[in-house]
Amino acid sequence: MIAKVIVDIPTMQTNRSFDYLIPESLNNIIQIGVRVEVPFGRRKIQGFVDEIVEDTTFDGDLKPISNVIDIEPVLNTEMLKLSKWIADKTYSFRISSLQTMLPSVMRAKYHQIAVALDESTKKDNLFQNGQVEISSNLSKDELLRVKRYKSNGQVDIIYSVENQAKKKTISVIKNSKSTDELIEIKKGMTRKKSQLKVIDYFIEHIDSVISINELTKLLNVTRTVVTATIKNGIFEQKELEQYRTPKNFFNEKVNKTYSLTEEQNKAVNQITNSIDNKKNDIFLIEGVTGSGKTEVYLNSIQNALEKGKTALMLVPEISLTPQMVERVSQRFQDKVAVLHSGLSKGERYDEWRRIERNEAQVVVGARSAVFAPLENLGVIIIDEEHESSYKQEENPRYHARDVAIWRGEYNKCPIVLGSATPSLESRARAQKNVYKLIKMKHRVNNNQLPPVEIVDMRDAKNASESGDLSVKLISALNETLQNGNQAVLLLNKRGYSSFLLCRECGYVFKCPNCDVSLTVHKDKNILKCHYCGFESSIPKYCANCNSERLRSHGTGTQKVQEQLNKLFPETGVLRMDVDTTSKKGSHSKILNEFANKKAQILLGTQMIAKGLDFPDVTLVGVINADTTLAISDFRASEKTFQLLTQVSGRAGRADKSGQVIVQTYNPEHYAIRLAAKHDYEEFYRHEMFIRHRSDYSPFYYSTLITITHQYENQSLKKAYEIKKYFSDKLDENVIILGPTPAIISRLKNRYYYQITLKYKNKLQVHKMLTALLNETQKDISEGFRISIDNEPQ
Ligand code: ADP
Ligand code: ZN
Ligand code: ZN
């Protein structure tokens, strides 16, 4: 038989598979979906078995597969098929989509194993089960011994691919004798008192399987005593796989169920109907913040489970939405597996295996959880479907929403997209009845959405002495604190201030590797590049004119925290941004402190905008609504509207009513005005009009091609070549923009140029982009990196 293998060739990627013979020795072991090791040129490389066939079209001698890495397939038929689709859709290679689907620990390394060939060699205590790994653990003597065996033909050296994914096991002790047998044994060993304790334990717990550690503690005996009973053949020892189950973010275990509101009921019924009838519907829930969308998700999942099916739920980023995970875990307990970047690689691998073995039926996770190997999917839910984090920004550049929809078709199950502010693309599809629109217009508690007040920061009378906080916001904070309530403040800019400027000559301190100004971080007394991580101490003199008159401009979370501490010295202020949350578990620590009211003010970047549900938060303040508005992106208005709506939704979620204050220099901008009115529908209409007028998504497809090189002229030259390639062949209906320098034209000492294609005819462009992908492979060796980003975010 012949295996078609997708190989991992780092230097020259390709989408074709290579044919290899399945050697007799691996017959019946090699299956579709296992990883193998194959000879390629003079090296051995890893690959995935994609197909097994009887014939080859290759004339020449086929090489045999050297080794098999997996005893069981790591990817099922669905995943293999999906990987093909992803490679095609995202202009990447099969191998990278296959690898993306597996937990990162399963990326393998090579090692060698010496296998003893005869009985006498096996007796050498170097070998265990007739094998020894040749590694740095062996002494020189031992290595020489292996070498001698090898030259005498007593061992065979095989290359094996090391699985980084070590399973964690525990040693357990187990009994397979009957009570009578144990009593009999006990009679024969009256003198070994402490071993008798072990026997007594099993007489009382005949079916017990208990870890050796636990048993020694329980019986208060030494480990030797327990292992002696095993050595004497009374009991057996086994290694059981132990999962590193990730800890929950909050510990409280209360299982609330509600009787659903009318809107919730309607939504659940529609979704359940699709689950029951195996209909591949796509629902878009447009539900205001606090309308109880989560409860709809949970009930839909429940219904899928009751039908014996599984459920997948995606959330933007778990560390930012711990309460969501908590609610799912509370409801479905040990049926839930959680997948996200906050887990250690080992924990992630364990969760993945629990899913693979059908031990978990509900998966909650961020973007890559969309590849969870759940079988028999009943429903897929994507919360906050508009979030750009669902799009992967590196190869393969897939969008989790698209992948979910593919899986929905494959599994014949419904997809539920939920958001208070759906993406324009999704909302437009619902308009055309491609998606089924479910509107949830009312908050569960029947409270009004909180009133939003816009403060015009251009107006001098609104300014206060402390600079970044207006008089209005300060007095609202005062009132909130006096009433014993809490406030959430959003400032989408971390650090102390945005840049350091010389007041003598106007020089701005910039990153030496990137074309961006350095951010001042006062707590560590450094200047920092947020793109490449460059750091330097804050200089005393201007690098251009040597003047001492340096001043930091702009504001950041650190500066505002300082201001808040001065204004409200009695009040705890928690800060949540990339700098305070770099350590594992720090998100939930901060949120826990806020939940326990150790602090009354939570200040943070957009990580505080999502999903938080604290009953005592009555005030939300947006310190500068203009930060997202200013980004150079056709989605800037949409992102601003979404962020403002999300963060406003944090106020007045329980019995208390809330209030929102938005500070801005653009009070008339429609994104800010309409967010203040909670008018998504009007925003949608207005934004669609603008997108239509300027030929952007969802009216046009778009693809971004980025060309980078260490030398600017090279980068630019290649960009023009690529432009020519398109303009020669594509018809005039395709809009080709650029080449232009990317927004950040230099990053980590590479120059970035970009070309944007906008088009309506997918087919023609798709063919040319696929050809470009293959064509530009050879440019990699000349130092180019060329990326094709389908529907860039
Ligand atoms: P959303 O996700 O739409 O913002 P949530 O699902 O978080 O809204 O619900 C908001 C709050 O209302 C939560 O505290 C939730 O526990 C509560 N809640 C949800 N559904 C009900 C219900 N049917 N009855 C009472 N409270 C509910
Ligand atoms: Zn200067
Ligand atoms: Zn930099």
Name some characteristics of this structure.
alpha/beta, GIY-YIG endonuclease, 6 domains, seven-stranded parallel sheet, 32% helix, 23% strand, globular, binds adenosine-5'-diphosphate, binds zinc ion
Write a structural description:
The chain contains 23 helices and 33 strands. It has 6 domains: 2-107, GIY-YIG endonuclease (3-Layer(aba) Sandwich), CATH 3.40.1440.60; 109-163, no CATH class; 169-241, no CATH class; 262-440, P-loop containing nucleotide triphosphate hydrolases (Rossmann fold, 3-Layer(aba) Sandwich), CATH 3.40.50.300; 452-497 and 554-688, 3-Layer(aba) Sandwich (Rossmann fold); 701-790, 2-Layer Sandwich (Alpha-Beta Plaits). With 793 residues, it is an alpha/beta fold. It has a 7-stranded parallel β-sheet, sandwiched between helices. Bound molecules: adenosine-5'-diphosphate and zinc ion (2 copies). Residues 258, 260-261, 264, 287, 289-295, 444, 613, 653 line the site of adenosine-5'-diphosphate (ADP).
Bound molecules: adenosine-5'-diphosphate, zinc ion
User: Which whole number gives the mean pLDDT?
Assistant: 88
Query: Rg from C-alpha positions?
Result: 31 Å
pLDDT < 50 runs, ≥5 residues: 246-253
Helical segment count: 23
Shape: globular
Total separate domains: 6
CATH architecture of the largest domain, by name, is: 3-Layer(aba) Sandwich
**Structural class category:** alpha/beta
Estimate the strand proportion.
Answer: 15-25%
> What's the CATH class of the largest domain, please?
Alpha Beta
Within the largest sheet, what's the order of strands?
14-15-13-16-17-12-18
Q: Helical proportion?
A: 25-40%
